[in-house]
Specification:
single chain, alpha/beta, TIM Barrel, Four Helix Bundle (Hemerythrin (Met), subunit A), 3 domains, globular, GH, Glycosyl hydrolase-related protein, hydrolase, Glyco_H_20C_C, HEXDC-like
């Protein structure tokens, strides 16, 4: 039954966002008594829509719109009947509430973003049938994602709008933009050069759209380390201490940092800024050492922090920073982030200003007690503590939901127990971003449900909310676990193996990971997963195209994952018939599947990310294809007598990771493409600093 929604009451601050959602969901929308029917106006929309409809366009499927509006599709674009429901909106009280009875619905909310979660409750529970009422209190006051926009995947404005609409339905109210060098600084042409950097106008458009839904957007930048992509350019070498760290105690660097802070914060309403400063182990070991001699890292970092905070304070900003370096430097060996025995000494704590929030990041522990202990280690600093967990899209084509959900549960239970009122779900794009934030939406949903309940949410509740907010079943998202949770991996993949990536990129003639996977039926696993993903798909649903890449990847790995083992076994046995079959049938079949995967991945990338960065994946796919071609040539030369031997296949296969083989529960982990593809030289590092 198709529903006309008539809205009355206090709509002022939420009307524009509501119209955007009505347009997305194809809901018939009226303002009470005024007869202004229709969908949303194009509020804050840019001109970057070409080619983006596959992933980030509107929810066009008639059956979904009818279902979410309380109706039933006939399958021909029409519905059985039409009805009207009036929704009264009131701002006040604590938390949020929504309900329905006798053709009337209501929403009450305390904070702007809570209205949109309440609206999603109407979509979820329905506005026909039995009466219902639901009230919620927000137990974590600030919650949202951190999107990595620095590892090649720079989201387009349309992708941002699509993500923000779904975040609004979830009830999230903050988003952090992680930008190492992907924003503009006048006078610094190499800053973000050819990297898809955002203009000030683009950042302002993101902020404007987020504000429609009461979502606070703010920048997360780097003011000390993690600046390799900028500092690699010869014209800016004067800013450099080491390959990734700025030169502390340098006036030119501080002037650069001031311009960074100015340009990063100017487009945003928020006064928040994340100034980074994590993983700065190399600080003071390069040019700084030449100029100033040896200094301990803590005094260098503490002095630089004071200089950066002086800039921040002059601008009236509210800073936060990663806390890991202080915990590492306070540990027994000066390097351990999670040492149980670490105590930050009073002398160190006195030198760390208390007017900077400390962001404690932790992505892979599973006991609330661990997080409670780590939070306690921050208390001597006297700073407000923010928590950052992770949804594991790092170094994979999918999402490690087993690890992500288990670690999130433990972490957020601890945060609520310890009174931590601001949390973020990081989505790092390490090593080129083969994955994407859209397939991590189930993880974001779990953060939202944790934020709106006292203990942990029932999984059935998470499932219902995921369907209401994303239009996709939680079970479909969870299938992506299988890309890496293969035979040989611990259930839940808590030991972080990523075969979906290293089995695609490893060379079939060299087989760097073949010892890791010997005896495992990976071909059969990926064939079964391919069929499961295909069966779960819903053509026409807005997010359905997300699952084409995982499906196509399985279509490659069902043939490629054990190809190297088969080549080696046939060669060692001098089975020329099998070598002939592998050369003439299997390798061409793999190449055909890789071409199909690349085309699907390219469509997906260009539907959500700027084109910069795709060339990296193009080169990687090209490498796989050309090496398959060379493998077929080498086999043919051997079989035809032009090559007396194949030296590549005569080499003993050694373990890639002896730790993984000895301990079990993991096929291995690799963070870098160049280490997956070849043991030989990709580039020559003359000076690591």
């Amino acid at each position: 039954m198709k529903t006309t929604w008539t809205w009355i009451g206090e709509l002022g601050e939420v009307e524009a966002g509501l119209r955007e959602l009505a347009d997305e969901l194809k809901l018939k929308f009226e303002l009470g008594g005024e007869g202004k029917a229709g969908g949303a106006e194009a509020i804050g929309r840019g001109e970057d829509k070409a080619g983006a409809e596959a992933i980030v366009g509107s929810e066009a499927a008639d059956d979904r719109a009818a279902r979410e509006a309380g109706g039933h599709s006939r399958g021909d674009g029409t519905t059985e009947a039409e009805r009207a429901v009036t929704v009264r909106v009131e701002r006040g009280g604590e938390g949020l509430a929504a309900g329905y009875a006798d053709g009337r619905a209501w929403i009450r909310y305390e904070r702007k973003h809570q209205f949109f979660r309440a609206f999603s409750l109407l979509l979820e529970k329905g506005v026909d049938g039995p009466a219902w009422e639901l009230a919620e209190q927000q137990r974590i006051g600030t919650v949202g994602p951190m999107f990595d926009l620095s590892r090649n995947g720079v989201l387009t404005l349309d992708a941002w709008r699509s993500l923000l609409r779904r975040m609004a339905l979830m009830g999230l109210n903050s988003v952090m933009l992680y930008m190492e060098d992907t924003y503009e600084i006048p006078g610094e042409p190499y800053f973000g050069y050819m990297r898809g950097r955002y203009s000030a106008e683009e950042l302002r458009a993101i902020d404007d759209y987020a504000d429609l839904f009461g979502i606070e957007a703010f920048p997360s930048i780097q003011t000390l380390a993690h600046l390799e992509e900028f500092l690699k350019w010869e014209p800016v070498k004067g800013y450099k201490d080491t390959k990734g760290a700025l030169l502390a105690q340098d006036d030119r660097v501080l002037e650069l940092v001031e311009r960074m802070i100015e340009r990063a914060t100017a487009p945003f309403r928020s006064r928040k800024i994340h100034i980074g400063m994590d993983e700065a182990e190399e600080v003071g070991r390069g040019k700084h050492l030449d100029l100033h001699g040896f200094n301990g890292r803590f005094p260098i970092i503490a002095g630089h922090l004071q200089a950066v905070l002086d800039i921040v304070r002059r601008r009236g900003l509210s800073p936060m920073m990663w806390s890991d370096m202080f915990l590492k430097l306070a540990s027994a060996n000066g390097a351990e982030h999670f040492d149980r025995n670490t105590v930050i000494p009073e002398e160190m704590a006195r030198q760390i200003p208390s007017d900077v929030d400390m962001v404690y990041w932790d992505y892979n522990h599973f006991e609330p007690e661990h997080y409670e202990a780590q939070l306690g280690k921050h208390r001597p600093l006297g700073c407000r503590v923010v928590f950052a967990g992770g949804v594991w899209v790092f170094n994979t084509f999918g999402v490690n939901y087993g690890l992500s959900l288990a670690a999130t549960e433990a972490a957020l239970l601890a945060c609520k127990a310890e009174g931590v009122d601001e949390v973020y779900a990081t989505m790092w794009g390490d090593d080129g971003m083969e994955s994407n934030p859209f397939i991590a939406l189930l993880g974001l949903q779990y953060y939202a449900e944790q934020a709106y309940c006292d203990g942990k949410p029932e999984w059935s509740r998470v499932e219902a909310r995921t369907l209401a907010c994303t239009g996709t079943e939680a079970a479909a998202f969870l299938l992506l676990n299988g890309l890496d949770e293969t035979p040989g991996a611990e259930p839940g993949n808590r030991k972080q193996t990523n075969p979906s990536k290293f089995l695609l990129y490893q060379d079939v003639l060299l087989g760097l990971f073949d010892r890791q996977i010997a005896g495992l039926e990976l071909d059969a696993h990926y064939a079964e997963l391919e069929a499961e993903i295909a069966a779960s798909r819903r053509p026409g649903a807005a997010l359905d195209p997300l699952f084409e890449v995982p499906e196509r990847l399985c279509g490659v790995l069902r043939w490629k994952s054990q190809a190297g083992l088969r080549l080696k076994a046939a060669y060692d046995a001098d089975d020329r018939a099998e070598l002939e079959r592998l050369a003439s049938e299997l390798l061409p079949r793999i190449a055909e599947a890789v071409r199909a995967l690349r085309e699907a991945h390219r469509r997906q990338w260009l539907s959500m990310f700027k084109p910069f960065g795709w060339e990296v994946l193009d080169i990687r796919y090209g490498g796989v294809l050309t090496r398959l071609d060379t493998a077929a040539l080498r086999l043919r030369d051997y079989l035809d007598g032009r090559a007396a031997r194949l030296e590549e296949l005569e080499q003993e296969r050694l373990p890639y990771s002896t730790v993984n083989l000895e301990q079990g529960g993991s096929l291995g982990w690799c963070s870098y493409y160049y280490r997956m593809a070849s043991p030989n030289v990709f580039y020559h590092v003359q000076n690591p600093f």
